[in-house]
Write a structure and sequence with these properties.
5 helices; alpha+beta; 152 residues; 6-stranded mixed beta sheet; DNA-binding; globular; 6 strands
DNA sequence: GCCAACGTTGGC
DNA sequence: GCCAACGTTGGC
């Protein structure tokens, strides 16, 4: 099975590509996903898969770099912690509804690919990011991956 | 299981 | 800060 490519959205005010880079080889849990479609994509991720990191809700929304999935989906324990902002009252220790993966910094692009550029490129018109900008985890096709790498 | 109300996201 | 899009909730 070949590796898959994904896109992970984050608000740089909360957690940016630079924050991920600072975590180094230890990587970072990609937690707090509380949307079923996004969760299901998380569960499809395999160790070694790659993910574009996208900065949203900021001055220049853009794909800013690449990360590697270093651990496939496991239960998001934050769902059980009442003090966590990711607490989910409907999750129990036997049935945690939400998942997370671990990712590791791979690359920061010298020239981020802005949402404006993405939207103006016919080759990227089918991207989930363009069609439904709210989905925080989405798949990227091999064609889109190669095309984006050719642009940055 | 329908659907209105409500909350959240995120570009602008 | 506005507002469109859309997911979730809950009454019936």
């Amino acid at each position: 099975m070949s590796l898959s490519i994904w896109l992970l959205k984050t608000e740089p005010n909360e957690f940016s590509i630079d924050d991920l880079k600072a975590k180094g080889a230890h990587g970072e849990p990609w937690d707090g996903i509380r949307n079923y479609q996004a969760r299901n994509f998380l569960r499809d991720m395999k160790e070694g898969d790659l993910a574009f990191i996208y900065h949203s809700a900021c001055e220049t929304p853009a794909i800013v770099g690449l990360a590697t999935i270093i651990r496939s989906a496991y239960p998001d324990q934050n769902a059980l912690k009442p003090t966590s902002k990711y607490f989910d009252e409907k999750s129990t220790p036997d049935n945690i509804r939400w998942s997370m993966v671990d990712i590791q910094f791979k690359q920061k692009f010298a020239n981020p690919l802005t949402l404006k550029q993405i939207k103006s490129d016919p080759a990227l018109a089918d991207m989930k990011l363009v069609k439904s900008s709210r989905l925080s985890v989405s798949p990227v096709s091999a064609f889109e991956y190669e095309h984006i790498l050719g642009l940055i």
